[in-house]
Amino acid sequence: MNITPVWAIFIGSIFTNNILFASFLGMCSFLVCSSKIDTALGLGSAVVFVMFCTTMLNYLIYYYLLVPLKLEFLGFMIFIAVIAAFVQFVEMFVERFSPDLYYALGIFLPLITVNCAILGAALFMVIRKYNFVQSTFYGLGAGLGWAMAIALMAGLREKMGYANVPTPLRGTAVIMMVAGVIAMAFMGFAGMLNIQ
Amino acid sequence: MSSSPAVSATPGVGKWKKTLGEGLYTANPITRQILGICSTLAVTNRVDKALVMGAGLIFVTGLSNLFLSLLRKLIPNRIRMIAEMAVVSTFVIVIDQFLRGFYWDISRQLGPYVALIITNCIVMGRAEAFALSNPPLLSLLDGVANATGYALMLAIVGVFRELLGSGSILGITLLSPTWYVKNQLLVLAPGAFFALGLLLCVFNLINPPTAPETKK
Amino acid sequence: MKDNTRIIVFTVVLAVICALLLAGSTIFTAPYRQANEKAEEVRTFLSVLGAPVQGVSDSRELLAMFNREVRVKTLGSLTLYEYLPESGKSDMPAAVAVPFTGMGLWGPIKGVLALQSDLRTIKTINFYQQEETPGLGGEIGADWFRKQFENKQILSADGQAGFRVLKPGGQTGPTEVDGISGATMTSQRVGLMLDNLAKSIAEERNAYVQ
Hints:
The structure holds three protein chains of three kinds. By secondary structure, chain A is an all-alpha fold. Chain A is built from nine helices and no strands.
């Protein structure tokens, strides 16, 4: 039973507990593919959708199937299976009904399955003992927070193309430094909300 | 899914050394391949967490590589990814259960990051890239070598962050609070990013990447 | 068709092997895991009550100690954990622990307050779960912060129930402690939490203290 109010969870998961800047999840898929804001936003929206839906699905399966059967230890496996299956399903659906969207987003979908952030959201939901409504808003918020984070980083990366980055720092090293500064900025959001 | 002609059933010593060297250094998962970043950032604020995570990854990567390599000629192509995920998740759950039973404190500290080994790109990456086209023992070595390379980097960052951030290593205070002002930032989220960035920078200085960095 | 049969056979065999590994590891570790989980809960109470838990890492020992020496009682809306060490002969508890929960800055804060058997003087306090900023709000878990609570009271001399966390730097009375400099909000929330706790304990206190 988690006493945090739903709106606090939602806003918190976007700003104060940003799943990328505070919990470090989703760095890999970000580093590989988003050097432009467009691709970042595309990936981000896909992740928001998948995270929102799978968090709800995983909640239902965990608390209505695994817990009554005392199979909680299978949780990890079931979560990743649900995520993979959901992404597969979305891929087929999008390919069938909107080939344009498929070509735009197609390459992202396999990447999303191994995105730590999505599995991470399900895991945090269980650890923090959120109820269904809390989980739904958490999934949505975490996704939005992640999308915003990578859009920010992609934008900065674009700008850095014009900067004279020292050779040893080129590539991932300077991205890490930038991420660190942004993480510091996000820490400043603490206390923004007045939760009673 | 047959192995390439160059890799015989009993590969020569050279192949073994190459696999070991690549996993540990020349193609180190963190500094060269840039994989497994999420957990590196999360668990390196304390050395004990870093070491346990490293050990866990060695266990999972080694065994899953071995297992998948043994099965490599039998896995139907259509369910390849599913089979990989099933094998990896099984080993991750096993190690998580083990930690909860015998190393409860560390298990609590690591929290969800043990489960996140499932999505750790290193494990799946080595399975796809190596285990499915190489003999079992060599795959085991590859898995262990890569994971050990990862564990080494984790240990280095962990020591850096815990020593300068809390003044201790493994909980033993080395920099006494009487004269050393703890750099708390290193223990927090931003410090993780900075520490990793510094590590990558140092390694780029020691061993500059040969190919030009493309669109990174 | 042969392809499909192969897939099915392979899947079944793989599933069986994985299931065996999983079942094996789960069953093998089950007693240890369950003991650890229960011990986690009781360790906090035992340590705040002053029981000798420092070197004890064996979960079963902890559980045995808890069952032997701690008596759980309900008092109105509160749950009390009375500590009756075997070494002490009297029926009066050496300490009484009261758990509390509240909202911190980043997430819930859970703690346990240990009082003398007069339910008025504080022995010690433990914030066992908090997600505050390490180094700032997180200092509520630090020794220096907790030490302040020793021998403080939840009732003032003239019977007013309450507890306050003040801005550091001034004098603190018997029902007050210093907050954490740089962590005003966490300090305020903790203060509120403890004030409410003090008032609820005071309400039930007369029924308890003979």
